[in-house]
TrEMBL record:
<dbReference type="GO" id="GO:0000462">
    <property type="term" value="P:maturation of SSU-rRNA from tricistronic rRNA transcript (SSU-rRNA, 5.8S rRNA, LSU-rRNA)"/>
</dbReference>
<dbReference type="InterPro" id="IPR039761">
    <property type="entry name" value="Bms1/Tsr1"/>
</dbReference>
<dbReference type="GO" id="GO:0000479">
    <property type="term" value="P:endonucleolytic cleavage of tricistronic rRNA transcript (SSU-rRNA, 5.8S rRNA, LSU-rRNA)"/>
</dbReference>
<dbReference type="InterPro" id="IPR007034">
    <property type="entry name" value="BMS1_TSR1_C"/>
</dbReference>
<dbReference type="GO" id="GO:0034511">
    <property type="term" value="F:U3 snoRNA binding"/>
</dbReference>
<dbReference type="GO" id="GO:0030686">
    <property type="term" value="C:90S preribosome"/>
</dbReference>
<protein>
    <submittedName>
        <fullName>Ribosome biogenesis protein BMS1</fullName>
    </submittedName>
</protein>
<feature type="domain" description="Ribosome biogenesis protein BMS1/TSR1 C-terminal">
    <location>
        <begin position="38"/>
        <end position="313"/>
    </location>
</feature>
<dbReference type="GO" id="GO:0005525">
    <property type="term" value="F:GTP binding"/>
</dbReference>
<dbReference type="Pfam" id="PF04950">
    <property type="entry name" value="RIBIOP_C"/>
</dbReference>
<dbReference type="GO" id="GO:0003924">
    <property type="term" value="F:GTPase activity"/>
</dbReference>
């Protein structure tokens, strides 16, 4: 019972201190005590977002957990490590904000030392282990409304993504209702489109800006587009519409032998059972190859003419180079 009473006394003392701190820095001093108890009841969960308070200009308190950390954890840590030197404290709690550190770099470019200006700030950042790999990343991009030009497929763009700035080729695509990625010739204006590009693997929802020119003087608006990273997907396929044309070689009622559409029997074997259509709208199906010159046999729903053209419309996978 003695231990329990001491624990309760400590708990109530912390809660009283927290309530005093809330009343001291409350942005609404006319709030009644009942409203304070309703907002900051000690039985509320620690991570409950009570409200945002500003203590001075350095700290923002948003929950009872932050107040307990301010009143108990920070003074306890400060008293525990106060007698140690800086080298020992760094091993336990790391480098504190405001400390001076010394860094050594290898393979540093000599141009940086030659053009170094002490009045120009240099931001030093680091990369995670998974961000050092390269691969295809899928992004969502939108053309900036102030950019006067259009972005064409496979045009090089300079991306500022995370800690990196690199140049890559963009493959724009639109996701259709059947979740198929269809290739686009241009990035559409005022609309988000998806794209694939080769670059460093970056975490999801990382924002970026795209530029076509990084010279000092540009006559028009510089930022071409902006967007976010969706995922790093090596298996994402972008398809493109392909239209093949052939001519009839021989017609036997509703059966016809077509030429000039394929080059080998291997290509015909991949398209066996595919739907074809004549210029007049008569539909048919590819049956089997005939000979070794790329000719094949097809059946139609009606008799076709020798002067007609036969078309095969399909979707082929784009190869990224």
């Amino acid at each position: 019972m003695v231990k329990t009473s001491k624990t309760l006394q400590k708990t109530f003392s912390f809660i009283d201190s927290a309530m005093e701190l809330l009343q001291k820095y409350d942005p609404n001093p006319k709030r009644s005590s009942n409203q304070m108890e309703q907002l900051d009841h000690p039985l509320h969960p620690p991570d409950l977002q009570v409200r945002q308070l500003k203590l001075g200009h350095q700290l923002q308190v948003t929950s009872l957990k932050d107040i307990i950390h301010l009143l108990y954890t920070q003074p306890l840590n400060r008293a525990e490590f106060e007698g140690l030197d800086d080298e020992a404290r760094v091993q336990y709690e790391g480098y504190r904000p405001g400390m001076y550190v010394r860094m050594e770099f290898e393979k540093f470019p000599c141009e940086f030392i030659t053009n170094f200006n002490a009045s120009y700030p240099v931001i030093v950042g680091g990369l995670l282990e998974n961000e050092s790999n390269m691969g295809f990343i899928r992004i969502r991009i939108k053309l900036h409304r102030w950019y006067p030009k259009i972005l064409k497929n496979r045009d090089p763009l300079i991306l500022s993504l995370g800690w990196r700035r690199f140049q890559t080729l963009m493959y724009y695509a639109k996701r259709e209702d059947n979740f198929r990625m269809r290739s686009l010739k241009y990035a559409r204006k005022y609309m988000h489109v998806e794209a694939m590009c080769w670059g460093p693997i970056t975490s999801v929802n990382t924002g970026f800006v795209a530029l076509q020119n990084i010279t000092d003087r540009v006559p028009e608006f510089r930022i071409a587009a902006n967007g976010v990273v969706l995922e790093a997907d090596q298996s994402c396929k972008i398809v493109k519409k392909l239209k093949l044309m052939g001519t009839p070689e021989k017609i036997l009622k509703k059966t016809a032998f077509i030429k000039d559409m394929f080059h080998s029997d291997t290509e015909i074997a991949k398209f066996e059972g595919a739907k074809i259509e004549t210029q007049s709208g008569i539909r048919g199906i590819i049956k089997k190859f005939q000979g070794d010159r790329g000719h094949f046999r097809a059946t139609f729903e009606d008799v076709i003419k020798m002067s007609g053209k036969v078309f095969l419309v399909c979707m082929c996978v784009c190869v990224f180079t």
